[in-house]
């Protein structure tokens, strides 16, 4: 696992190293102006999708512009980011040294299409919730059950509570095809959070 964590760190550093610059960027460098007040600049759906899968190895200006487009996109436009996600999923599939064990991978498909199914699911950036269940312990519970056995009850409401380590679940699915096994080392928030008292945030 230490080797796997090291590989992930190396890929992250490789993706961001060109962002460490001694130059102080300004308007003369073509930095886009701040968005107008009220404009959408981000959205809260599933974690990591934009930052980890859209242009991680592209130059900063290309990657940042595409991520901004992704964050501002309306639901009707989400499918056009499938190709971006699909291109990057292969990097995660091979991080454990085994290609073909990623969640929803299609190993018999042409190489360019093996990651299409998962990319399509991720591009539809909505959390699935089963309101019939009062048990909420597994991040992505509804998606995992429905995509494995369509129509079967998950027994868990799904969604994403503040106490779930959604980032570890996502990375594990991308690398190992399991809901655990890849750990980013962050065990819990600095402050206790609540799953019953709104707004479900820890004290400042």
Anisotropy-based shape: globular
The chain-level mean pLDDT equals 82
The biggest beta sheet reads: none
From the alpha-carbon coordinates, what is the Rg to the nearest angstrom? 18 Å
Pattern of helices and strands: HHHHHHH
Number of helices: 7
Secondary structure class reads mainly alpha
Percent in strands: under 5%
Number of strands: 0
Assembly state (oligomeric): single chain
What is the helical fraction, as a range of percent? 25-40%
Distance between the termini: 33 Å
- Unreliable stretches: 12-29
Question: Could you please describe the fold and organization of this structure?
Answer:
The chain is mainly alpha-helical and 204 residues long. Helices cover 35% and strands 0% of the residues. It has helices spanning 2-16, 49-53, 60-72, 82-93, 116-123, 141-148, 166-175. Helix 4 (82-93) crosses helix 5 (116-123). Mean pLDDT is 82; it is low at 12-29.
């Amino acid at each position: 696992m230490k080797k796997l964590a090291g590989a992930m760190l190396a890929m992250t550093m490789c993706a961001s190293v060109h962002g460490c610059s001694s130059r102080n960027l300004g308007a003369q460098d073509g930095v886009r102006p701040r968005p107008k007040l009220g404009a959408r600049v981000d959205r809260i759906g599933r974690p990591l999708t934009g930052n980890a899968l859209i242009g991680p190895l592209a130059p900063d200006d290309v990657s940042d512009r595409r991520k901004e487009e992704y964050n501002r996109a309306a639901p009707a436009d989400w499918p056009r980011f499938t190709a971006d996600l699909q291109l990057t999923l292969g990097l995660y599939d091979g991080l454990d040294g085994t290609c073909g064990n990623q969640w929803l991978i299609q190993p018999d498909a042409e190489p360019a299409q093996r990651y299409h199914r998962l990319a399509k699911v991720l591009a539809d950036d909505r959390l699935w919730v089963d309101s019939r269940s009062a048990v909420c312990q597994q991040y992505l519970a509804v998606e995992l059950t429905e995509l494995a056995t369509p129509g079967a009850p998950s027994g868990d409401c799904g969604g994403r509570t503040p106490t779930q380590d959604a980032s570890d679940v996502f990375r594990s699915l991308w690398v190992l095809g399991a809901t655990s096994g890849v750990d980013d080392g962050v065990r819990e928030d600095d402050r206790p959070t609540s799953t019953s008292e709104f707004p479900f945030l820890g004290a400042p």
